Automatic annotation (TrEMBL):
Biological process annotations from GO: cell division; cellular response to amino acid starvation; positive regulation of TORC1 signaling; protein transport
InterPro entries in the cross-refs: Sec13/Seh1_fam (IPR037363), WD40/YVTN_repeat-like_dom_sf (IPR015943), WD40_repeat_dom_sf (IPR036322), WD40_rpt (IPR001680)
Gene3D superfamilies assigned to the protein according to its UniProt record, in alphabetical order: YVTN repeat-like/Quinoprotein amine dehydrogenase
GO terms for cellular component: lysosome; nuclear pore outer ring; Seh1-associated complex
Leader sequence segment: none
A molecular function (GO) term: structural molecule activity
Protein name: Nucleoporin SEH1
SUPFAM superfamilies associated with the record: WD40 repeat-like
Organism: Timema douglasi
Ranges of the WD repeats in the UniProt entry: 7-39, 274-306
């Protein structure tokens, strides 16, 4: 396994790196308030194709929408806002600039009264949705009713937690037998405040999101959280970045669906727990098949984990 370095040219700490659906485009964001977009050439080299001042505070997260909605990214910031940006191929104001690409802010989501700590687009099968969470413990879900007009977004749902929110993850896999699911993590450092991971499910009967589970075994601050893509498993996998790496299985219990709410009960088990970073873990991310997990921590290493019918084992370290 080889590693390639990219001089991102940010002037402050880089908080997030996100790849698009195909892995050929990359976005970075930083405390310098800038977002940069990179494209990969045929030789595997990355070159910058976009750079702009996105916020008036540190930019915490950047994420790509599914390509069927166009070249769209969302960002969130310490300035208490989240923004949706779209890449435009301009006609050029002067000769020679035809076809020049630039990014345009389509909307500015300003409902939060505190720092917006994470932003994620929903699964494409649900339409164009974006979820945000903030330091005041509020999760908001917005919808673009017309995907051809990204300037119009409506606040569809608002869920309030008792703890500050640090990260969220949509479950990319759902079907008619199991409702849409969202996991939210908290970076609250007080262990006595209980579990720091919350599971929400959407009820088709009530058309509302409801908190169905709290992972009481995770009492340390959570910095990142990620559902694995599900290709045929009868259960869901959730990776958690806290003082170590944890992998949790969420198995829908048969015949447990509540007829009134439409929600299912889950059998939640801690499948794996790794302290190989010997430090705080900041990011966890699955590959597209949900079979390999990557984690990064304060030890300066990226570690890969692969499950073989469970349990997971470590792969090469970068």
């Amino acid at each position: 396994m080889s590693a390639h370095s990219v001089n991102a040219e940010h002037k402050d700490l880089i908080h997030d790196v996100a790849y698009d659906f195909y892995g050929k485009r990359m976005a970075t964001c930083s405390s310098d308030q800038f977002v940069k977009v990179w494209d990969q050439d045929e030789q595997g080299n990355w070159y910058m194709t976009g750079s702009w001042k996105a916020h008036s505070g540190s930019v915490w997260k950047v994420t790509w929408a599914h390509p069927e909605f166009g070249q769209v990214v969302a960002t969130c910031s310490f300035d208490r806002t989240a923004c949706v940006w779209e890449e435009i191929v301009g006609e050029g104001a002067v000769p020679g600039e035809e076809g020049l690409r630039h990014w345009v802010r389509r909307t500015n989501l300003v409902d939060s009264r505190t720092s917006v700590t994470d932003v994620k687009f929903g699964p494409k099968s649900m339409g164009l949705l974006v979820a945000t969470c903030s330091a005041d413990g509020i999760v908001r879900i917005y919808e673009a009713p017309d995907i051809m007009n990204l300037a119009q977004w409506t606040l569809q749902h608002e869920m309030t937690l008792k703890l500050s929110c640090s990260c969220l993850s949509w479950n990319p896999s759902f079907n008619r037998l199991h409702p849409p699911m969202l996991a939210v993590g908290s970076d609250d450092t007080n262990a006595s405040s209980g579990g720091k991971v919350f599971i929400y499910e959407y009820s088709e009967n009530t058309h509302r999101w409801a908190k169905t589970e709290t992972l009481s075994t995770v009492t340390d601050a959570v910095h990142d959280i990620s559902f694995a893509p599900n290709l045929g498993r009868s259960f869901h996998l959730l990776a958690i970045a806290t003082k170590d790496v944890r992998i949790v299985t969420l198995k829908p219990l048969p015949d447990s669906s509540n007829a009134q709410s439409g929600l299912m009960k889950l059998d939640i088990q801690m499948t794996a727990q790794f302290d190989d970073h010997y430090s705080i873990v900041w990011r966890v991310c699955w590959n597209i098949t949900g079979t390999i997990l990557a984690s990064s921590g304060d030890d300066g290493c990226v570690r890969l984990w692969k499950g073989q019918f469970l349990p997971f084992r470590i792969l090469p370290v970068v």
